[in-house]
Amino acid sequence: MLLGALLGAGVPLDTLQTSVSAVSPEPVALRVETVHRGGFAATRCHVDVVDSTHHRTWRGIRSLLLAADLEAGARDRAVAVFERLAVAEATVHGSDPLDVSFHEVGALDAIADVVGVCAGFAALADDAVVVSPVAVGSGSVSGAHGTLPVPPPAVAELLRSVPSYAGPPGAPAMELCTPTGAALLTTLATSWGPQPPMTVGSIGVGAGGRDPEGHANVLRLFVGTPAEVRQDAAVLLESNIDDLDPRVWPQVIATLLEAGASDAWLTPILMKKGRPAHTLSVLVPADRAAVLRTAVFRHTSAIGLRETALDKHALAREMATVDVDGQPVAVKLARDDGVLVNAMPEYDDVVRAAAVLGRPVNDVLADAVAASRCFFG
Questions:
Q1: Lowest mean pLDDT among 137-146, 168-177, 344-353
Q2: Beta bridge partners of 264
Q3: What's the pTM?
Q4: Is the domain defined by 316-376 classed in CATH 3.10.20.300?
Q5: Less crowded by CB within 10 Å, the N or C end of the chain?
Q6: What's the mean pLDDT when you consider all of the chain?
Q7: Cβ contacts of 355 within 8 Å, gap of 6 or more
Q8: How far apart are CA 151 and CA 131, in angstroms?
């Protein structure tokens, strides 16, 4: 499926075939066809081999890879994939990774899958590879070690600490992620999650041999360039909360601001059954939204969030200092197209200065505001 997605995204067949032929001791041919899965067109790449059952150890496969005339990027990726797979198999079976005997994965078609995919990603010059949560399937599968539950032990080990799930609701019981696929994804991925901001240039849709009912059994590859998130783009996170001890709220707000929120506030509301509650609102720079979501869920009793994308227009700001009875007080200056329109003392500095001077906060604040008028010229 990865080979088909790479071809569909524009990687030349010759690029993959040359790398596969370089590492294979027997003739291996890549054959491409257009198929349909769940009503959608996809690219399927067949790997035609004579030797399809030979078992090889990681030691033997590594020798093949190191001796082959491969481009360095493809070789390094392929070595890393098989090493990861060998370590996972060794962990499952309690053996030495170098002596792990690959069964299905040791056959030439599986080696061609790995080398071809690694050559394809090397050709794309991938700076970042973001992978969505992996669908592993359900039920059981038959292999060299008998009948195994899905995901098989090696896949479960490979996907340790990686987001995964059973698969689409209502999908038939079947294996959706093989050890080879899991090793490729976990080696090539630089991060996991939803599609990042990007300008998509090409899309590849890869298919395997199975076409189950209920969903399009395909793998999509989006290739593009990072899209800059505007600095003034913002997200408003909100949640109605009625079961948090009110004494916790000041620390929650402080924690959210420390985590990068532009602002955070509470609005008293009345919920169902007359229960008093608060709407927590958190204004977040778009590129910090994921971090603040986690912070809200961790530090409050919220179990859901509403999100609204906003355009935020903020004045240019700079900091200055004024003197109040020998105490420095920071002042935030705001300019509109270069023209100063606001100068406001920082309240925490005012409180600190008042404590040192033994004066009321209101008096020190008034003096700081008066001193700030000097910036208007």
A1: 137-146
A2: 282
A3: 0.64
A4: yes
A5: C
A6: 91
A7: none
A8: 18
Q: Is the dihedral of CA 314, 296, 167, 124 positive or negative?
A: positive
Tell me: the pLDDT tens digits for 258-317? 999 999 999 999 998 899 999 999 999 988 999 999 999 999 999 999 999 988 888 888
DSSP helix/strand/coil, 5: helix
Q: Is 293 exposed, middle or buried (0-12, 13-18, 19+ CB in 10 A)?
A: middle
Q: Are 371 and 324 in contact (CB under 8 A)?
A: yes
How many whole angstroms separate alpha carbon 108 and alpha carbon 26? 8
Structure tokens that stand for 314 in this block: 């903020």
Residue 268, preceding bond cis, omega within 30 degrees? no
> Where exactly are the structural domains of the chain?
2-226, 233-311, 316-376
The per-residue pLDDT for 349 is 96
Q: What angle do CA 173, 179, 182 make, to 5 degrees?
A: 95
> Structurally, what CATH architecture does the domain formed by 233-311 represent?
2-Layer Sandwich (3.30)
